Amino acid sequence: AQSVTQLDSQVPVFEEAPVELRCNYSSSVSVYLFWYVQYPNQGLQLLLKYLSGSTLVESINGFEAEFNKSQTSFHLRKPSVHISDTAEYFCAVSDPLRGGSNYKLTFGKGTLLTVNP
Amino acid sequence: DAGVIQSPRHEVTEMGQEVTLRCKPISGHDYLFWYRQTMMRGLELLIYFNNNVPIDDSGMPEDRFSAKMPNASFSTLKIQPSEPRDSAVYFCASSLGTNYSPLHFGNGTRLTVT
C-alpha cells in the first residue's frame, strides 16, 4: 500500500513570505499526486494535481508543486503567501482501483499553514 | 451543482447509541468514498462504492460500522453501537469514473460520542 509523509505538521510564516510544504511518498511505480486544501469547518478541495507531462504543476491561486521521481517528492511552494492561505494542506497519492481508470487516495497527515500579519 | 451534501454537520451521542451519517453525492458521479479524519490517524479511507456497489470495505474498523448505497444519489454510514473512540470527522467524497477526475468532498459530519 502507498504511504505519504508530510514532514511538517505545522508551518507558521509571515504574510508575503515564501513557503514550502514538504511531501514524500513511498511508491516506486507510476503514481498520480495531489495537493488538497482544507479551510476551517470545510471539506477538502483540490488545489493541484500531477498526472503526467510537465513535472511542475500550478494552481490558480499561485501555488505550485514539482514532481521529483528520483526523490519521490511532491513539495508545494508559494513565493508570497497571504493571510487567506491559512489552512491545512494535504498531500495525497493515488492507488489504482480495481478496474476502470479511477483511483482512491491515500493522504498524508496534513500540514497546518498559518500565515501571520 | 450543489456539491457533495452531508448531514448532519454535527452529531453528539452517548456511547452505545446508533449513529447514521448521510451523504448525497454530486449527480452523475459514479464513485463514492467515505473517509474518517482524526488527529492521531489523519484521513483514512473506510469504504468506497462504484455504481452503488461496495468495492472495498477493508478500511472499515470493525463490524460496528456498516455502509450502504441504495441508489446513485444517497449513501449512509452507520455505527452501531457507537463508542467514544469513534469520535471523528467523517467525510463523504464522490468522483467521476473517467480521466482520473478529482474527488469532491462534502463538508463532513463531526461526530462526538460521550
What can you see in these coordinates?
Chain A has strands spanning 4-5, 10-14, 19-21, 24-25, 33-38, 44-50, 56-58, 64-68, 73-78, 87-96, 103-107, 111-116. With 117 residues, chain A is an all-beta fold. In chain A, the strands form 3 sheets. In chain A, strands 2, 5, 6, 10, 11 and 12 form a 6-stranded mixed beta sheet that branches. In chain A, strand 10 and strand 11 (103-107) form a beta hairpin. Chain A starts with a strand and ends with a strand. Chain B is an all-beta fold. Chain B has no helices and 11 strands. In chain B, a hairpin with a 2-residue loop joins strand 5 (42-50) and strand 6 (53-56). The chains are: A mainly beta (117), B mainly beta (114). Chains A and B meet through strand 6 and strand 11 of A and strand 5 and strand 9 of B.
Work out the helix count of chain B.
Answer: 0
The major pleated sheet of chain A works out as:
6 strands, mixed
Number of helices of chain A: 0
Rg of chain A, Cα atoms, Å: 14 Å
Morphology call of chain A: globular
Beta-strand proportion of chain B = over 45%
Radius of gyration of chain B: 13 Å
Q: What order do the SSEs of chain A take from the amino end to the carboxyl end, as H and E? A: EEEEEEEEEEEE
> Unreliable stretches of chain A, pLDDT < 50, 5 or more residues?
none
Q: How would you classify the helix and strand content of chain A by structural class?
A: mainly beta
Question: Which range best describes the helical content of chain A: under 10%, 10-25%, 25-40%, 40-55%, 55-70% or over 70%?
Answer: under 10%
Number of strands of chain A: 12
Characterize the biggest β-sheet of chain B. 7 strands, mixed
Helical content class of chain B: under 10%
Distance between the termini of chain A: 41 Å
The poorly predicted ranges of chain B are none
Coarse shape of chain B? globular
Number of strands of chain B: 11
Mean pLDDT of chain A: 89
Q: Roughly what fraction of the amino acids of chain A lie in strands? A: over 45%
